[in-house]
Amino acid sequence: MPLLQISGIRKRFGGLLAVNGAGMDVADGELLGLIGPNGSGKTTLLNVLSGHLEADAGEVRLDGRSVLGQGPTRLTRLGVLRMFQMTRVFNRVSAYDNLVVCGLALGLDEAGASRRALELLEELKLGHVMHLDAGQLSGGQKKLLEFGACFMVPPRVALLDEPFAAVHPVMKETMSAFIRRRNQDGQTFILVSHDMPVVVDLCPRSVCMNAGRVLADGPTQQVLREPAVIEAYLGEAQHEERDHG
Length: 245
Ligand code: ADP
Ligand code: MG
Fold this sequence. Notes:
By secondary structure, the protein is an alpha/beta fold. It contains 9 helices and 10 strands.
């Protein structure tokens, strides 16, 4: 049975159908790419999966059990964890304490939380800044910190929304190496990214969305070659040309 079964998700914002019947299965241990032009509904879909938005229709099953309509707190406990496109850390708390607090909230004891925090800070190359307030970290370091917080207690599925956006290439490499390692250890991911080389490199399978629907679902290289996918991205480029020039 797939770890996640997503079907017929619809989410309307006023007159706009941001997600219009999207569905996909995600296998346990899979690293699934979720791609598509700007505005195609990727973030909205992740928000529905993590319980931050209520869907208007559809179904989400985790291990076969319906979880649609549960709030983010409950879904976090069930192991559906979301990293936001915008960084969210406590600025006036040290990097180390940010992780420890997160671990405590997820049910670790203090010693366990401390151990995991130190391991993650090391692995994410944040050891040298662990005692600085998170507010003093660079944007990329904050992103790595928030990223680490998602793994204080390994989730059933990690939902990553553009984790590499505006991140220094060195940190991007740290992050993608981390994702690859965790996935090799069995961690399930849905990775939203515009960085096609990284998606090709990391994700054996990808789903491409456009206008709230699934346009293509299959081996990443094959999805990227589908005419409908190429057309959707060309459409985006034309919009951008119109908007900017
Ligand atoms: P993506 O992540 O693929 O770029 P989004 O899910 O962010 O796409 O957005 C899908 C569509 O829904 C876009 O047209 C966007 O403007 C719209 N949208 C997203 N969030 C909201 C919201 N809270 N209120 C109104 N419209 C929204
Ligand atoms: Mg988005």
